[in-house]
Amino acid sequence: MSDSPEDTTEDTATQVFADHRELLFSVVYNLLGSVADTEDVLQDTWLAWAPRSRASSAKEIVNPRAYLVRIAVNAALARQAAISRRRETYVGPWLPEPLVTAATSVPDVADPALRAESVSMALLVVLETLTPLERAVFVLHEVFGYAHTEIADILDRTPSAVRQLAHRAREHVHARRPRYQADPRVQQQATERFLAAALGGDLDALMEILASDVTMWTDGGGKARAAVLRPVHGRDKVARLIVGVASRAPQDLDIRYRSVNGDPSALLFADDAPFAVMVIDLSPDGDQVSGIYAVTNPEKLTHVAPEPGQ
Predict the structure, then answer these.
(1) Which of 44, 164, 223, 292 could form a disulfide with 216 if both were Cys (CB 3.0 to 4.6 A apart)?
(2) Where are the alpha helices (DSSP H) in the chain?
């Protein structure tokens, strides 16, 4: 028995959405910084896509990719107000939910093409300071390479308005984070040195590896013991804070090195349960740690798990 035209159309709609799901996830996650919110937006996108793609009387969608991206981006923007209200009551610094991917010892991801759609934790923190529209334009243009005219169609704005948004966003981001990409092997080695000094309570080693203007963010969300309720600035304060926190950490923490938002990072486990994700940002010369991002909120670690067989 052959499939009916309705079944064939439904299969096609499902396949098209599946083919573009990874792209949609990357775009929306970089707009929202939350896996749960991203999944909700993708569900909304599917609910909007499926009936439209199956409707026999509807005009054919010539470019499904563009159509789906437009739906997803606008659904993400519509969700921003609720997310902003939620952040107002968040306890302590808010950090993006870590996006953990492949395991890595000394990572072989030096090819920029392999990391083109990975926005670092440090950059995501800067993107939080943009308006939702500025962030959408920056992500679509700078990360995914969309032309201003394409973005104008997605956001229902004029190309000149998009160019203005892009200019403001680019200036804002580059003023806070200069353009550079740390070598993955250097970052891996620096992460290992930093953790050895931190967990060993070696104040002298920390003072050596930390930049004078280092900043540390600790996100516990009020659900896990966070070190502080606001970012800490300066080598001396950060080093002493880390030594104090390390002295209270669980014994025999298990460290796994994985890729977090495209950067070699560390996952800390206590009794096989995720305890923290540690991401460091290096100074442009790669010699010192300029930023430390520690996520301990258990709600943000639900997707973090030991690899099979470990």
Answers:
(1) 292
(2) 5-32, 35-54, 64-88, 121-127, 132-138, 148-155, 159-176, 184-199, 203-209, 235-248
The CA distance from 268 to 100, in Å, is 13
d(CA 267, CA 285): 25
Collapse the DSSP code of 287 into the 3-class scheme (helix H, G, I; strand E, B; otherwise coil) and give the result.
coil
Query: Which residues have C-beta within 8 Å of that of residue 310, sequence separation ≥ 6?
Result: 256
CB 296 within 8 A of CB 276: yes
Q: Which residue has 């806070």 as its token pair?
A: 176
Phi, psi values for residue 118, rounded to 5°: -95, 115
Q: Which secondary structure element, helix H or strand E, spans residue 276, and what is its range?
A: strand 273-282
Residue tagged 């003023």 (tokens): 175
Residue with tokens 């107002």: 88
Model pLDDT for residues 15-63, shown as the tens digit of each residue? 999 999 999 999 999 999 999 999 999 999 999 998 876 666 557 788 9
